[in-house]
């Protein structure tokens, strides 16, 4: 997938932007991702393995097994139950990793902080054609190699709403701190997703996340409050209008808040207050599909942080907003 992007944030020539994923460098032509997948699906066994290369892999993927996007094998236990093991793409998220699987090319900020990759076991149960339940036993949150002796547990439940869309609930529960830290930091991520084709020419996607972590609040001036549970939340709504078979327009609104910074890390704002990121953003784009397995997208977005969080720099001035524009061309076979 070829790309070009321009960002108003001045991070230096050929450096990655903040929240790097799709088109992560400004004023640079490049390749978002090139990938090759081998797949086998039999009656009693299955396998999928994907190698990838490009800016997404370099800027946002795991440093361990960096060129592997997924590699897992599965066996059928009964007619309706499969057991898979290996390296997987995440089961969490309103948006998928690849732009071709999303309405927009850029990823919402919450998608950047959700887990992208995972390693472990997956038990898939399909009671009927509409309902799919997956149970996950994993090394941890966004990791292939575990950093402690505990494991993480995940649930994915999706229900098909006829042939028009689906609704799903996804979660991940685990403690990601090293064993040397005895205080619990149990993290619980909850993700709700709704996708629906309202009309032949109009599609809507809605997602919400609520994430908590024990003993993770920022302490007050007296050093109190750190032992309380911190919470982060987000919301995404994306609309796509397709007036012609090969042309569409789309918009996306997003909000994200991690006031205690257990996901984003903390910064000192202009009032010298320690805080995590709080922001909202808007995206607008157009898409041309010359054929079923290819697209051209031109898209613009504005990210606006809290007024006191001037994490960007434009024309020599610190600012709380970043404008961006990107063009992506994707083809798959």
Core attributes:
333 residues; mainly beta; Porin; 17-stranded antiparallel beta sheet; two-stranded antiparallel ribbon; 2 helices; 21 strands; 3% helix; globular
How would you portray this structure in words?
Helix content is 3%, strand content 55%. It is mainly β and 333 residues long. It has a single domain, classed as Porin, CATH 2.40.160.10. It has a 17-stranded antiparallel sheet. A hairpin with a 2-residue loop joins strand 5 and strand 6. The model has no long low-confidence stretch (mean pLDDT 96).
What would you say about this model in short?
The protein is mainly beta and 333 residues long.
Structurally, the number of domains stands at 1
Total E-strand runs: 21
Q: CATH H level: which superfamily?
A: Porin
Q: Helical amount among residues, as a percent range?
A: under 10%
Low-confidence spans: none
The rough form would be described as globular
Cα-based radius of gyration, to the nearest Å = 20 Å
């Amino acid at each position: 997938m070829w790309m070009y992007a321009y960002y108003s944030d001045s991070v230096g020539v050929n450096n990655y932007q903040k929240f790097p994923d799709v088109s992560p460098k400004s004023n640079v032509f490049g390749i978002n991702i090139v990938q090759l997948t081998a797949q086998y699906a039999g009656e009693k066994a299955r396998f999928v393995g994907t190698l990838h290369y490009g800016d997404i892999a370099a800027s946002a993927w795991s440093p361990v097994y960096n060129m592997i996007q997924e590699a897992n094998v599965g066996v059928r236990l009964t007619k309706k139950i499969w057991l898979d093991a290996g390296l997987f793409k995440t089961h969490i998220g309103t948006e998928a990793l690849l732009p071709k699987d999303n309405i927009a090319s850029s990823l919402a900020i919450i998608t950047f902080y959700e887990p992208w990759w995972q390693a472990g076991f997956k038990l898939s149960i399909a009671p009927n054609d509409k309902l799919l339940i997956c149970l996950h036993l994993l090394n941890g949150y966004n990791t292939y190699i575990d950093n402690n002796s505990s494991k993480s547990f995940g649930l994915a439940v999706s229900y098909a709403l006829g042939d028009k869309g689906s609704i799903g609930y996804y979660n991940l529960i685990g403690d990601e701190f090293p064993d040397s830290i005895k205080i619990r930091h149990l993290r619980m991520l909850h993700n709700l997703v709704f996708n629906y084709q309202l009309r032949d020419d109009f599609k809507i996607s809605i997602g919400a996340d609520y994430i908590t972590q024990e003993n993770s609040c920022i302490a007050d001036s007296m050093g109190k409050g750190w032992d309380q549970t911190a919470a982060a939340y987000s919301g995404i709504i994306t609309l796509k209008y397709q007036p012609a078979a090969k042309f569409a327009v789309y918009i996306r609104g997003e909000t994200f808040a991690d006031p205690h910074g257990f996901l984003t890390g903390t910064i000192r704002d202009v009032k010298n207050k320690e805080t995590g990121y709080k922001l909202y953003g808007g995206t607008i784009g157009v898409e041309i599909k010359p054929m079923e397995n290819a697209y051209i997208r031109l898209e613009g977005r504005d990210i606006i942080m809290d007024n006191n969080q001037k994490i960007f720099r434009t024309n020599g001035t610190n600012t709380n907003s970043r404008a961006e524009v990107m063009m992506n061309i994707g083809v798959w076979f």
